[in-house]
Automatic annotation (TrEMBL):
Organism taxonomic ancestry: Bacteria, Pseudomonadati, Pseudomonadota, Alphaproteobacteria, Hyphomicrobiales
InterPro entries tied to this protein: Plipid/glycerol_acylTrfase
A Gene Ontology molecular function term of the record: acyltransferase activity
Membrane spanning residue stretches: 6-31
Span of domain Phospholipid/glycerol acyltransferase: 67-186
UniProt keywords, alphabetically: Acyltransferase, Lipid metabolism, Membrane, Transferase, Transmembrane, Transmembrane helix
Protein name listed in UniProt: 1-acyl-sn-glycerol-3-phosphate acyltransferase
Organism: Rhizobium anhuiense
Length: 265
């Protein structure tokens, strides 16, 4: 009974926030106001609170621009958590655009939708990402290309790191900053999750969305830790694959440190 009351209350608050903020976001998108970058953070903070997702940040978001954040990806909650922490736009696969609820939210946040299978479109997509970063937007890339079980970092794909290279000529300093980020789900009701319970937070993709969402709301208390790591400067002479390998190593170390509760060098 209490769980269903929590679900009903969360739904009412989220609906009320959406009724107020979404029309304003549509106006901001239409007129390209800078407010369109800030409103999603307010909405996602409200949603995280209603869902019982408690976010803790370690490290510091880079002040320098242009900036690309590269993060591990284990759940739809990563979007909520990252958006609650910073004013960001996401790079998402084209299929997300047509998803119920999340597709609409992605479009409202002006995500960049990419078709990874069609190489002829890669240049145009990279140009769009580069242009957004050059304009001062923080772009988030999930370089694994899919969701994991939350216990490890999957193989990192280097292809879209090319967007950082394409933004270099537009940077006043000739540098694009690429910063690793780890999102780790560490506790439920204050108790360490461990490998066995972490799938409660993870959404590998073969799990239906609505039951998973209801489980999260019923739970009502999940701790998410966002860790910002040491950035890499991407310049004209930078090797993309080397940057990809460096960023992957740093994300992996950040993730393992948060999951194990101790620093890993």
């Amino acid at each position: 009974m209490i769980a269903w009351l929590r679900i009903a209350l969360a739904a009412v608050v989220i609906l009320a926030a959406s009724i107020v903020l979404m029309p304003l976001q549509l106006l901001a998108l239409y007129f390209d106001w800078r407010l369109r970058r800030r409103l999603p953070r307010i909405w996602h903070r409200i949603v995280c609170y209603c869902l019982g997702i408690r976010v803790r940040v370690t490290g510091r978001l880079e002040d320098r621009r242009p900036l690309m954040l590269c993060s591990n990806h284990s759940s739809w909650m990563d979007i909520m958590v990252m958006s609650a922490v910073a004013d960001v736009a996401f790079i998402a696969k084209i299929e997300v655009r047509d998803w119920p609820i999340f597709g609409t939210l992605a479009k409202l946040q002006k995500s960049v939708f990419v078709v990874r299978e069609e190489r002829r479109k890669t240049g145009h997509q990279a140009n769009e990402i580069a242009g957004r970063m050059a304009d001062g937007e923080i772009v988030v890339l999930f370089p694994e290309g899919t969701t994991s079980d939350g216990n490890r970092l999957l193989e990192v794909k280097s292809s879209l790191f090319g967007a950082a290279a394409m933004a270099v000529p537009y940077s006043p300093t000739g540098t694009v900053v690429v910063q690793p980020v780890a999102v780790a789900y560490t506790r439920v009701h204050g108790i360490a999750m461990g490998r066995y319970h972490r799938p409660l937070a993870a959404w590998p993709g073969d799990i239906e969305l609505l039951p998973h969402l209801l489980d999260i709301v019923r739970c009502g208390a999940i701790d998410a830790e966002v860790s910002f790591g040491e950035a890499v400067d991407y310049r004209t002479e930078t090797n993309r694959k080397e940057v990809s390998a460096t960023i992957a190593l740093r994300i992996r170390n950040l993730l393992n440190s948060r999951l194990r509760g101790r620093e890993i060098s």
